[in-house]
Structure formats: C-alpha cells, structure tokens
Amino acid sequence: MIYFGDKKPIKGDIHIDKNRCKGCGFCVEYCPRDVLELSEEFNAKGYHPPFIKDEDECCYCQLCESICPEYAIFVTIKKTKEEKGEKVENRP
Amino acid sequence: MKEEDRLEEKNPIEGLLRMDRIPHIWCPGCGIGTVVTSFADALKKTDLDLDKVAVVSGIGCTGRVAGYIKLDSFHTTHGRAIPYATGLKLASPGTKVVVFSGDGDLTGIGGNHFIHAARRNMDLVVICVNNFNYAMTGGQVASTTPKTANASTAPYGNFEGAFSLPYLADAAGATYVARWTALHLRRVSKSIEEALNRKGFSFIEVITPCVTLYARRNRLGSGLNLLKYYYDKSEIRHGADTRDLEITFQGKLTVGKFIERERETFLDAMNSHLSHVLGDDYQLYGRCFDD
Ligand SMILES: Cc1ncc(C[n+]2csc(CCOP(=O)(O)OP(=O)(O)O)c2C)c(N)n1
Ligand code: SF4
Ligand code: SF4
Ligand code: SF4
Ligand SMILES: [Mg+2]
Questions:
Q1: Which of B85, B88, B103, B290 could form a disulfide with B144 if both were Cys (CB 3.0 to 4.6 A apart)?
Q2: For residues A58 and A66, what is the distance between their CA atoms, to the nearest angstrom?
C-alpha cells in the first residue's frame, strides 16, 4: 500500500466485555475486516461471545461498537510506540 | 495492548446509560439496543446541553429505553408518551424532548396523540422502533403488522391493513419524516441528529428486528437474518412521495428522508396569534429559552 507522507493507517484496540455479550453475532457478521469470530466457549450467561482473530487487521471503523445491541464491544485507537504514554482521544 | 489495560477502558456510551441496569432485558438478537447506540451517537454529535435533553417512552420493549438512558427520562403509561412529552415541552420550552417508543405504543393505543402532536407541529423528536407487532405482550397484531404476517392474535395471518407510518405522519402535519432500518446505523444517527437540531414535530421510523416474536412466529430466522433482510430489501429514495411507502410482508422497503419543511411550531403559533390579538397585554411565552 502507498501512504501519503508519514500518514499511516489507523488501527484499533478492541475491547470485548464477554459477560455482557449475548452472542447475537452482529459484530462478527458486519466487521468489514473479518476481525472477529464467535467463540466455542460460553460466557457466564451461556452465550458464545466473539473473540479477536486478528487485531492487526482492525481499521478502527467502530462498526462493531455501533452495531452491538449490548454495548459489549468497543474500539479505541491503537497507540503507536511513540504515542504510548500520551493520552489519545477515543473518538476523532 | 495488555489485557489489564483493556479492561480499564470504558465503552464511551456508558456515560449515557444507567449502567446499574445493564444488561438490559432485550432478547439476544433484538435490534432495539442498536437503535439506542445510534441515538447516543447522534446526541454526542450535537452541541445540546445534556442537562436540557429529556427522553420519554411509553410501555413496551422499546418503552424500556427511557429506563436505560442516563438523562432526565420518563417511563410513562402505555400510549401516552406523546402527551407527557407535550406537557414537558410546554412547561419547560428550553428542554429538547425526545420520545422513544414502539410502533404499538405510538400509533396503536397512542395513535390519536401522535396525529394531534403532528398536526400542532409540537416541537418533539419522535423515534419509533417499528418491529411490526406488540412485542412485549406476546406478539399481537399492531397497527403496523403487514397483511398476511402471522401474529399471536392472527394465527392464520393478519387480514387488516397496516398504517404506513411516514404517510400517517406526513398527512397529519409532521415537518420532518424519515424511515430507516436498524442496520442503517449512521443514517439513523444522522436523521436523529438533524431532528435534534431543528424545531417542530420530527418523526423517525426505524424498522427493527424482533427475534423472539415476529421472527419466530413468521419463521424468519435469527435477529441477524432479519436485520440483514430488512437492509437488503430497502431502497433509499430521499424525498419519495409518502403515499408510496406501504410495507408488505417481507416485501421491499423504501427508506430515506421523505419530508423536511418549515412550519410554525405550536408555541410559535400561540405566541404570534396571541400577541396579534392581545397586543402588549400578552407576554411571549418560552421565547427566552429558544431564541
Ligand atoms: C393501558 C394498557 N393497555 C395494554 C397494556 C399492555 N401492553 C404493554 S406493552 C404493549 C404493546 C407494546 O407494543 P409496542 O409499542 O410496539 O412495543 P414493543 O414491545 O413492540 O417494542 C401492550 C399492549 C398496557 N401496559 N397498558
Ligand atoms: S473497529 Fe471495524 S475493523 Fe475493527 S473489529 Fe470493529 S468492525 Fe472490525
Ligand atoms: S454484537 Fe455485541 S452482543 Fe452481539 S455478538 Fe457482538 S459483542 Fe456480542
Ligand atoms: S420480544 Fe422482540 S422486541 Fe421485545 S426484546 Fe425480545 S426481540 Fe426485542
Ligand atoms: Mg412493536
């Protein structure tokens, strides 16, 4: 891929509250990068929460966060090595 | 990122929710929670002072929304969200009043209030989750159930004609009318944002999956199947004639922003009329907040 100047693609850190999830699969189905998959394991309520297959693919589009009816998944911007330690806004 | 750090971060929507009541009661695969997120996104994009935003719901699965949103919120009686909201708006004209309720609540038992608030151009944002049935009470026929769809009170299929809600709102005098499906996340949010930023009766219908009753009785699969189905069957036609928006059972859905027009709100009309008739004896009501 070609980037403009020093611009790099934004990546996301995905946060899943497994016990709040009801396993509806909305996030798994609609993630444009196919980052998520429903796990075999059960959560405390007996549902199958998603797990992160490949976080590196996540482009911080926040679609999973917008679609989740349980408020069980959200994404923050992954900090680059230089930014670590600094505060980064969650939503641009 | 380390697992411990991950757990420390909070979902940004939590600021707008009463977290002590989460997890909510909605079934796995129900779309109501998604519409709430779209509403929260819209609220964050406006410059509204959240201390001056109120949410009013009636009764039903959708009616629970008021109980989960951490704003001044009112869970009222069945069908009466709009009269409560009207009273709230008139007593406190500086408050942005949002009505968030179900199709049965707003246009079945509450249908009369709905048309009169639209006729008066009452300054309200009305978000209607249309799941084509009275979900909370067991999936009875509602004013929106499409012909031939199965419901608990129509075991051989529904034979009544249904309301087309945008047509009803338009005909009654609403000044902003849009319809989306729950999967049109950003568009739902954009419409709500537009409605929050304007004055007058704004109506947004969101076609939403009810997995436990409507989908199951009609053998339509999971919530995900229904979410996808509604989206795939929808065609965006902004400005479409509201007479052409009828919904048939599993037929195509016309979505978009159909109406946006200017008309005097109830309070503006009252002020201009009474100051015309009474002259200086009349003190303008509610002006200091809105203008
Ligand atoms: C006066 C009165 N009549 C009937 C009921 C029973 N009731 C509770 S919720 C509901 C239907 C709600 O349907 P809708 O507004 O479409 O909400 P949904 O559950 O589908 O989200 C009914 C009939 C009631 N609570 N009060
Ligand atoms: S932010 Fe977008 S790319 Fe990342 S997991 Fe969520 S939906 Fe997938
Ligand atoms: S959308 Fe939310 S509730 Fe549904 S599977 Fe994903 S995390 Fe779980
Ligand atoms: S009954 Fe239907 S509308 Fe009510 S919570 Fe369950 S899926 Fe949602
Ligand atoms: Mg309903």
A1: B103
A2: 15
- Residues in Cβ contact with B145 at an 8 Å cutoff, skipping those fewer than 6 apart: B132, B133, B151, B154, B158, B160, B162
Per-residue pLDDT tens over the stretch B222-270? 999 999 999 999 999 999 999 999 999 999 999 999 999 999 999 999 9
Whether the bond into B23 is cis, omega within 30 of 0: yes
Q: Dump pLDDT digits (tens) for A68-82.
A: 999 999 999 998 766
Output the six-digit token pair for B105.
């609540």
User: Where do we find the tokens 């568009």?
Assistant: B187
Give the gap in angstroms from C-alpha A9 to the nearest C-alpha of chain B: 17
| CA geometry: angle B215, B167, B151, nearest 5 deg | 25
The answer, for B45 touching chain A at a CB cutoff of 8 Å, is no
Give CA angle at B161 (B156, B163), nearest 5°.
Answer: 130
Query: Rounded to the nearest whole angstrom, what is the distance from the C-alpha of residue A42 to the centroid of ligand 5?
Result: 31
pLDDT in tens, B145-156: 999 999 999 999
Q: Locate the domains of chain B by residue range.
A: 13-290
Question: CA B192 from chain center: how many Å?
Answer: 9
> Which residues make Cβ contacts (< 8 Å) with residue B35, sequence separation at least 6?
B127, B129, B182, B188, B206, B208
Q: Is the CB of A72 under 6 A from ligand 3?
A: yes
What domains sit in chain A, N to C, each tagged with a CATH number? 16-80 (3.30.70.20)
Ligand 1: residue of B136, B208, B212 to mutate (most ligand atoms within 8 A of CB) is B136
